[in-house]
Every structure is written in structure tokens, then in C-alpha cells.
Write a structure and sequence with these properties.
The chain is mostly beta strands. It is built from one helix and eight strands, in the order ββββαββββ. The longest helix has 6 residues.
């Protein structure tokens, strides 16, 4: 039986979340920030992530309302062994403040 856990990620300019993080498949990422102060994008690849290129990125937060949830499930084409990239497009958060995180999806049993 799969048991999901919510993995909070502090999503602020002074975030203590260090990249990369390792999160078990089936868990839910919870990006936590103050209302109206941020957003979260799922970046298509490492190049876009490194360059803060949001052209093909997918917005996962709605109307700047926290938290933004992202389940690590097959419904989003996510599996064990995947590497996911997330970044903030709000203001200069990505380029100036480096507000982004790499997530490695791991098997819960390992």
C-alpha cells in the first residue's frame, strides 16, 4: 500500500531548502510561501532551469495562493529515478535570488 506524505518546501528568498532534495515516489511536494508573494513553475529540463527560461515551463501555483502542491505520481508522468526542476518566476526570484530546487524522485523502500 502506498502511503503519501506531504513534503513542505520553504519557498521564499531566504529559504533554507537546499537543492537537490530526495523525495519518495508517491509523496506530495508542498511549496510554502506567503499569499501574493510568489509562484512555482515546473521547468521542462535542466537547461531551462539553469537559465531561468520559463517559455515551456508549467505553472503549478494558482493566483499566488499558497501552498502549491505537486504530487509525485504517474498522473503527472513522474516516476522513480526522475529528476524534476522547479523555479519561481515572481520578480527576480529565479535569476537574482536563485529561488529554485531540484527534486530527485526515489523509491520509498530504498
Amino acid at each position: 500500500m502506498l502511503h503519501s506524505l506531504c513534503r513542505p518546501i520553504s519557498w521564499t528568498r531566504t529559504s533554507e531548502t537546499k537543492s537537490p532534495i530526495f523525495v519518495p515516489f508517491g509523496d506530495i511536494l508542498s511549496f510554502v510561501f506567503l499569499p501574493g508573494s510568489n509562484n512555482v513553475y515546473w521547468m521542462p529540463d535542466k537547461v531551462a532551469f539553469d537559465q531561468c527560461d520559463f517559455n515551456k515551463a508549467k505553472l503549478i501555483s494558482i493566483f499566488f495562493l499558497p501552498p502549491a502542491y505537486f504530487p509525485l505520481t504517474p498522473a503527472l508522468n513522474v516516476g522513480v529515478g526522475d529528476t524534476l526542476y522547479f523555479a519561481s518566476r515572481y520578480g527576480n526570484n529565479c535569476k537574482k535570488y536563485d529561488l529554485k530546487v531540484v527534486v530527485h524522485v526515489v523509491d520509498r523502500d530504498n
